[in-house]
Specification:
By secondary structure, this protein is mainly beta. It has 4 domains: 175 residues, Jelly Rolls, CATH 2.60.120; 197 residues; 162 residues, no CATH class; 129 residues, no CATH class. It is built from 5 helices and 51 strands. The strands form 9 sheets. Strands 5, 17, 18, 19, 20, 21, 22, 23, 24, 25, 27 and 40 form a 12-stranded antiparallel sheet that branches. Strands 6, 7, 8, 10, 13, 14, 16 and 26 form an 8-stranded antiparallel sheet that branches. A hairpin with a 6-residue loop joins β3 and β4. The longest helix has 17 residues. The protein is rod-shaped, with a radius of gyration of 57 Å. The N terminus is likely disordered.
Amino acid sequence: MVRYKLFVWAFILTSVFASCDLSIPDKPDFRTAQTVEVPLINNKTYVFLGDSTGALIDTTSENLDSLFVVDPTSGLISITTEEEFNFGSLDDAIPEIDGSSTSFTSEVGELEIGNFASGDGGNLGEADFQALTGLDPNSINQGDDVPPQAIQPEVDINLDTDLFQSADFKSGSLEIIVTNNLGFILDNINVTLISDPDTLINGDEVDVVTGTSNTINDGESATISLPLDGETLANPQVRVSIEWTSPFANPQKFQRSPESLVVNSASGSDLFASSVTANLESQDFSTSSTTTFSDTEFRFTSPTHYVELSAGQIAVTDLVNNMGIGIETLQISFPDIRNDNFGVEDSLVVSYPVIPRNSTATDQTIDLTGYRIFANNNEVTYNIVAATENTQTGPNAGPVTISETDEITASVDISGLTIKSAQGIVLAQTVFLGDNDLSNDGVSEILDVFNDNEADTTSIDGLDEFSDQIDGFMFTNPVININYNSNIDIPTTIYAAMVGIDGKGNEVYLKGEPGSANEVQDGDPIDGLYANGAQLPKESLIKFSIGTETINCATITCQIPFNTTTTNVDDFLNNLPSNIRFVGRAVVNEDEGDVFITTPLEFNPSLNVDLPLAFSTEVGSPANFTDTLDLDIGLGDDFTEASFFITYSNNLPMGLNIFLSFQDSLNNEVFALPNADQEIRLRAAPVDDVTGFSNASTDDSFLFTLSELQLGMLNDVSFLEFSINLRSSENKAVKLRANDSFTISLGARIKIETEVKGK
């Protein structure tokens, strides 16, 4: 510049001397111009992942610092996160079984009063020789001839017996033992059993039954059986007569001095009566009854089917002895209700002490915790076995009157049953799933995915911030997995409304693709799944199953994948949902098969999102990134031209369109570049067809001249907003590494003119 000034002044002096005018001239007026280059952005490099000093995505924030996972081998970036996702409890699928309240009446039933004897071979009564034969015993000596029978008198013998006072017999017989002490051989002894007239209404004695012996020698005994089927007998007596043969030609001889005919004993043989008044031995009686269980939720169709209880009780109440005889022992056994090893020998038995005549026993309640109920055909049988007191001996000895219709009564109630485990037919159950389930009214069976009291909600931490930092990427291979542990071994289908909402309120429902197992079909039970008060269509829902695994999901984490083949998970996640809402309807054991179920039903899911940063962008919908820089050119007002130049080196597999917004101190835009007829496009780096990663960089530069209007506003600029639109190469899917980057330089060339005044 100094040399330029000297040349000018030499030119002026030469001109003056040539004119021969030697007067001293005035200093001339003139202008000088110079061009200045101002670096605005000097080789600033933006890596894909990094800190706030130079990264498209700042991973140092709290929500993003653990969002990204980098494969140590390939460098591929993935968004991998797992969030709690409580679907709600499936415990409502545990079937309920309600036992019916029953009562039983146990009648004594037919009374057994014999096999017992009275007399024990002694003498219950006897008939005198003379009364039986008409002969004077004092006139008879041993060896005398027995005269032929001339008369056949009947002699009554009052039996001194403790058999009974009276009875209405149903079956059996009375066995009379008679001994011949008459001194000669008898052909027959005829015995008629009579009922004492004192106890008969009409006052007449009644011949009940007759029996006869065969030939009986002197000193021998005979048993005469008297059948009592259907007979009534009171204060029994016998009437006896004898028959003998002693021909005149060959008479039999008296073998000794005659005595009497003795009734030694009377004993019952299989005697059963409908009523009896007697001194009774203990009487056993029994009956059975059943209680039923509801079959609306659970069915016992096999003897091996059972429910094991975590709670419940059985109550035996109002047990009344309506009889005129005490009950010595009473047991109520439940062979279908068992504990310990659950064999028949482990059956529940309820025992009672003595229950006095015409009295009520103390109520009993048994805790059924830990018991199993084997209710084949949904029925439980129980048996009542009792024994009356013995009134032949002891402090209560004495005659009592009992009838086969005498009874004990009681109520049996099985209630409060809570299932711990069960094996059997669980009928199809519908369970609504959400945060608080049917909290809207608990009756209408409606769950609204937008009702905060009903929907379960979760968020994928960092996705909203990721979308704030860079927007427009389309994930090409995203996956959502529901990871869970569960002890559910029952086929269960879940129909769900799962909606993702981004930071701008855009909603996308996760749904099954047509023809996939996740597609909700016509006729599927989706009633009750609502959104903002309206029933959701099947096209907004997804279904999936649990409980069909061949592995034990209680010890191994099982997984339900939602990929791009079976669902619209790409649309769902490309919306970058910051909030996910869920309500569902589970149908448990829809086929109603034979299953095992245990409580509590454990289903502990989490939502796992796996997003490999394999991106594409749609035509017309690029991804966006912005950065704001301080900018103060500060060159005064003496500039007449200005232009901006940009140079770059890009190894991102994505094209970049750059926009520059020059802003004042209040961040109001003063002007922007490029102009309407221009663009700043950074070409994408070439991509390896095999790996999908960039394998080189592209380099180029741009120059833009400011208009006169823009030039006039340049000194008002305080900030530069640097905006970038990113496009995948030809809008195809590309992969990104953490250290993929582009470098950019921005500078200004400004022409300044300065006026120099003469004298």
